[in-house]
Amino acid sequence: MLARRKMTSRELAARIGIAEQNLSLLKSGKVRGVRFNTLEAICAELDCQPGDLLEYCADADES
């Protein structure tokens, strides 16, 4: 979505008020969760829906 909007991660982080490092962690999937207000801010800034950003992957540790 960033590429489609011709926006850098740094610019998005500044616009939504989070650290660039935290946005990087979100992008890489290295977090266990995301706050709804953060997701809302990202979607508002990128003019998209949460489903455009998120993908469900079953956890290999779960049985």
Automatic annotation (TrEMBL):
CDD domains, per database record: HTH_XRE (cd00093)
Official protein name in the record: Helix-turn-helix transcriptional regulator
Short name of one Pfam family: HTH_26
Residues covered by the HTH cro/C1-type domain: 4-53
InterPro entries assigned to the protein according to its UniProt record, in alphabetical order: Cro/C1-type_HTH, Lambda_DNA-bd_dom_sf
